[in-house]
Design a protein that fits this description.
With about 325 residues, this protein is an alpha/beta fold. The chain has 15 helices and 10 strands. One of its GO terms (biological process) is L-valine catabolic process.
Length: about 325
Amino acid sequence: MRSGEMWRLLSRFNSFRRTHVILQHLRMSKHTDAAEVLLERKGCAGVITLNRPKLLNTLTVGMIRQIYTQLKKWEQDPETFLIIIKGAGGKAFCAGGDIRAISEIGNKNQKILQDFFREEYMLNNYIASYRKPYVALIHGITMGGGVGVSVHGQFRVATEKSLFAMPETAIGLFPDVGGGYFLPRLQGKLGYFLGLTGFRLKGRDVYTAGIATHFVDSEKLDTLEEDLSALKAPSSENVADVLETYHTKSKIDRDKSFILEEHMDKINSCFSANTVEQIIENLRQDGSSFALEQLKVINKMSPTSLKITLRQLMEGSSKTLQEVLTMEYRLSQSCMF
């Protein structure tokens, strides 16, 4: 074979290889995008896995749309009897919305910000009214949007590695995703305290506070999922029985007292005021080390966010979830633009 022909063949082969690599890359890219959420049927359960572990399973518009669409299908499917939602990677259930991605896109297209918040809140409301048992395994970091896709469900399972927080007042926002509904309904003024300070609850405290409905040792989560999926045409009561069995058998921190138990009287007293200024004054007058520490925290927060959050929680205490989400959508748009 002459050298010219050899070079032409090599050139064609290299071109083919480049094309193959590009196509393979494109297929992988499409797979990666689609794999941000894994949607599977396991036995009687529809299982949702938030699959962005390197980004703490933060939510994007695409993920929200996939979850909403699949929940609609499973609600109508006679072979699907319950939903299980969890996070991949073991570090986080979901750390909230992907603020970086949303803001980068939003700078070019404001409509995407409107779509994100509207569709996220629609999903939150849909989960609250879902007609089949909905089990959220809130193992690891659970904040913001992660709270929205879990706390409104019928069952929420915490582990010793759960970490709950609504940190929005530190970033110029407010505890949305229905925070105006569930926070003021926690014991005493605990929800006001959590919403204004962004205080982090860990492990069994997430259950004790009322965020989770059950507590299970993390090493038992896989077995729990298997047992739930293996149920035969289960009712909500059947699902509750399995969860209660695991909860009762959990051993980690069983005798641990609630981290805020000794401070609840101060929280109820200081955070019962109708203005942020009065809450600050109450903390000053209390003068305890706990009160002064919370004063330091509040002084680092956005003053506007604090005022919005307090009003949001006060208003939300007497509203339905739908009314709260409508209010929060309007607030989100006012904060964004």
